[in-house]
Amino acid sequence: MKEKTIDNSPKTPFNLLAGSIGTFISSIFLVMAFSSPYWLVSWHSTYSPFMKMGLWEFCFRHFRFPSFQFDEVFDGCNYIFSFEYKRIWEWLLPAWLMAVQAFMTLGLIFCLSSLISISMYLTRWPLKWTQKYGSTFIGIASMLDAITSGCMFLSVAVFGGQCWRRDWLLYPNYNYLSWSYGFAVISFFGFALSAYLLYQEHIDVKEQKKEEKNLVMQMQTQLGPGSHAYV
């Protein structure tokens, strides 16, 4: 008969595992929303001169800017800071859209920092620091996830409230929020949940360290000042 092997290796706590996976998946959604040009899209059946846009790219179909003194046609997709759009930068990039770009960029930086903090704790590198400051690593990751969630909330709230302005893109009623915006919303909820789970893990690790410290103090008290313990 085969002997049953007992796995005594420590299990990863649920809050840490779920929070880490949630942070990773939310980061993927954030990167896709950050880089894809499908935040706002026009209905194909309307044949609007505006086609689609993202944070960094605009696409037009034989578009003529109404107040432009030259009869210049904008056609195709271009980077928002490209030479083709130089003359209409002020119109394409209002202050609120620059704010959305800034919030998304900050969110990307904070989420990458959170992933680094989580990775250092999970891989125990550097070992001395993670053993001594394990709860701090998780607490930092939780705080960074919460800040990222706040940046994502501001991004989707500002964009969702301002993208229908009639002094921006023409015929706003012909447009709709597309999947890139949806990914940003999913990322917001994902980071909020991950921040909560990692915060709970931060509390658990602190309590565990406190119990271990109290246990050592009790053992030292029982042994007495002149006693010696041998292992």
TrEMBL record:
<feature type="transmembrane region" description="Helical">
    <location>
        <begin position="21"/>
        <end position="41"/>
    </location>
</feature>
<protein>
    <submittedName>
        <fullName>Uncharacterized protein</fullName>
    </submittedName>
</protein>
<dbReference type="GO" id="GO:0016020">
    <property type="term" value="C:membrane"/>
</dbReference>
<keyword id="KW-1133">Transmembrane helix</keyword>
<dbReference type="Pfam" id="PF13903">
    <property type="entry name" value="Claudin_2"/>
</dbReference>
<dbReference type="GO" id="GO:0035151">
    <property type="term" value="P:regulation of tube size, open tracheal system"/>
</dbReference>
<dbReference type="InterPro" id="IPR004031">
    <property type="entry name" value="PMP22/EMP/MP20/Claudin"/>
</dbReference>
<dbReference type="GO" id="GO:0005918">
    <property type="term" value="C:septate junction"/>
</dbReference>
<keyword id="KW-0812">Transmembrane</keyword>
<feature type="transmembrane region" description="Helical">
    <location>
        <begin position="179"/>
        <end position="199"/>
    </location>
</feature>
<dbReference type="GO" id="GO:0019991">
    <property type="term" value="P:septate junction assembly"/>
</dbReference>
<feature type="transmembrane region" description="Helical">
    <location>
        <begin position="95"/>
        <end position="122"/>
    </location>
</feature>
<feature type="transmembrane region" description="Helical">
    <location>
        <begin position="134"/>
        <end position="159"/>
    </location>
</feature>
<keyword id="KW-0472">Membrane</keyword>
